[in-house]
Amino acid sequence: MHEGFFLRLAAPGVALNMSGEATQATLLAGHIRLVADLRDRRAFAALFEHFAPRVKSYMLRLGATAAQAEDLAQETMLTLWRKAESFDPARAGAATWVFTIARNLRIDAIRRERLIEPGEPPEDAEAPDMAADAAMAVEQEEGRMRAALAALPEEQAMLLRMSFYEDYAHGDISARLGMPLGTVKSKLRRAMLRLREALEDLR
Amino acid sequence: MSASHHPSDETLLAHATGGLDEAYRAVVATHLAGCAACRATVRVAEQVGGDLLASIERVPMRADALERAMARLDEPAPPPVPRPVATAGLPDTLAGYGMGRWRPMARGLAVATLLTPEGGRAGLHLLRIAPGMHLAQHGHRGLEMTSVLQGAFRDGEQVYRAGDVAETSDDDDHAPMAIGDEVCVCLIALSGRLRFRHWVFRLLQPLIGF
Ligand SMILES: [Zn+2]
Questions:
Q1: What fold characterizes domain A152-203?
Q2: Do A114 and B21 touch (CB under 8 A)?
Q3: CB distance B50–A93 less than 8 Å?
Q4: Are the C-beta atoms of residues A43 and A72 closer than 8 Å to each other?
Q5: Taking burial as the number of CB atoms within 10 A of a residue's CB, which of A94, A182, A184, B185 is the most buried?
């Protein structure tokens, strides 16, 4: 009850650190809110320090050169600055939102590299509704997600990770691990089912 | 419109990671536009992405990275790229994909290929199949993903209608047939551009009067 009270006070502005890790998501979401509302450069700098090195790492894991990864991290942060209004904490947490920006920019970069006009721009979210309750719900959901991920059998978790960071088609994962394609797919399916169930319990 | 056949969870996961070839991505996006349940699943997978981003090992940016970023904040945003308009009759999710002309393959069957600028391993095609037309397919390798845009087809026991997605892989032996009164229009992604040549199309007797 106390925790809920403090989180309620904290979201979506600057968080009072009551419960460690979970509060960081609220803090980041609050920074994005400050960027959206006030064009707050200090909040942006904090978001940059947090996310840019992670996005760079993600791009490197996906085979980008150091220069490409650096540029894509810069582009991701610039997009965050420009599109902060479309961040909807009821829909996704800060890290999830930044992940989708980075993912979409990478796809665009692949298109650009082929000197073809980009097709679909990254999707725009509907008008954000920044209810603090919703932000809390997402935060709770993220906590649940972390717990559900941690509870997955190690192999399923590894396959999930591979499918994100190594950008292998499932067939390539299969070849690399010497695991039949059908097995890779059914393990991923089982992992997804568990995660969905873990989140559905919450609703 | 509520679909009764959806992409598999592992396909939705691959979509969320950004790892799907463009052709498959187009088929999935077309389905997602009309399916809230699958959009929710994609959001679950995107949260996994967010979680992994939160826990990934950080790689330092260049020393002047923040300075460079701050200097760009006042740059005017680039004008929005005008959104391409989809060819009449096609869903918006296919805007931006150039479309080749319809080529008749057999009586009651025409194919048009969509251009996929990323040049992935999978090709994207539109099929127009007259009711009663049967497709026999042999020796295809890899994943084939079909989204029904109009009309319906039957594959074995299953009936696929507008909004539905059919996924078949290597070992599936199947012979879909267009059913109903309407021409069936499908969006189909399959690995290997040349693979399409290996298809054998045969025209069966129309069901009526059989
Ligand atoms: Zn669906």
A1: Arc Repressor Mutant, subunit A (1.10.10)
A2: no
A3: yes
A4: no
A5: A94
Say what the pTM is.
0.80
**B132 token code pair:** 């009663």
Interface predicted TM-score (ipTM) = 0.84
Pairwise CB contact (< 8 Å): A167 & B19: yes
The dihedral through the CA atoms of B61, B66, B67, B71 has a sign that is positive
Closest residue in A to B50 (Cα–Cα): A96
Helix ranges (DSSP H) in B18-151: 22-32, 36-55, 65-72
Which of B95, B126, B128 has its CA nearest to residue B113? Answer: B126
CA distance linking residue A176 with residue A179, whole number of Å: 8
**pLDDT, mean of each 10-residue run, chain A (203 residues):** 36 43 82 96 97 96 91 97 93 94 91 50 32 54 80 90 72 84 90 87 53
Domain ranges of chain A: 13-122, 152-203
Q: Which two tokens stand for residue B140?
A: 């295809």
CA distance B189 to A73: 31
